[in-house]
């Protein structure tokens, strides 16, 4: 049986690589079409933030993200064209899938790539909100999702954030005894990279890390070890200060204000219901796996990250011309992506329960149906984007 399983794996994995390759090609086409659109707010054909991000770099010399330097170099290399930028962003999308697969392997405690981890990584990079017209008429903007194809800085931040999570999880296992210089430099470097691309991940990760470290201090963990892990965030704060000067300087007219529910209510019919639909699968899994919150510190930690992301998006709004952009949603979006990954592992564990088997298998099917519909919503959304529809598309 094992030999047959290995043969089946060896046949299917190359097919999955082919699927990933096709996905990369489709992303290249999508991003190229986005990149060549005119800077016209009324243009809805292949609408995205990409041409604006490119223009801010090439035309305005506005460098608030590390991606700006990459765009400038690729634009020049392509003879003042955007083809290489589109290819770069497609590679980033594929990299997100591969790093998600690596994260799943870590969660499943598997050393080698498998059909399960590979296929799961792909679908987790396609899943969207549970679309329900009663809650919100727009499949994307009425809800929140961890997979986004119209904002290039988020797309580039995503694989860096996944890599930072991988590094953090490996470091956290034994940090109470020892943190090596290599581990410290790797995590702090990845946090700097992620923050330099877009600060959103740090704004949800760092507060939860602070809460965790404070709890560890109360559990008598060495202050030295707590400080070492916490200090990995410090280099990123310098990046935040630089970005803050660019985005919220005295001449920009931008700032931050407290306005609960403002961002969530911009495009939803029933705001609170749309929020629940956005994380339907993780919530259903949580309902059936409440005990796992207390058994698995990783699961609890990333639910905490999600909660912090939600609170930031709930309460904070930029002022000025960016007030309707919902930029405090980005941290919540990457948190949603991560909690989908961690919830996916807990969902599969429902099948391994030895007690109350019928109950847990029923729970597995219910959660699986929710996930399947959210994957369907994501595939449909991506397919419609490829046809040139705006991400403001109605259902």
UniProtKB/TrEMBL annotation:
The keyword Transferase does not apply. The chain crosses the membrane at residues 12-32, 81-101, 113-135, 184-214, 226-250, 270-288, 300-317, 329-351, 363-386. The keyword Ribosomal protein does not apply. It comes from the Bacteria. Keywords: Membrane, Transmembrane, Transmembrane helix. This is Glycosyltransferase RgtA/B/C/D-like domain-containing protein. It comes from Acetatifactor muris. The lineage of its organism: Bacteria, Bacillati, Bacillota, Clostridia, Lachnospirales.
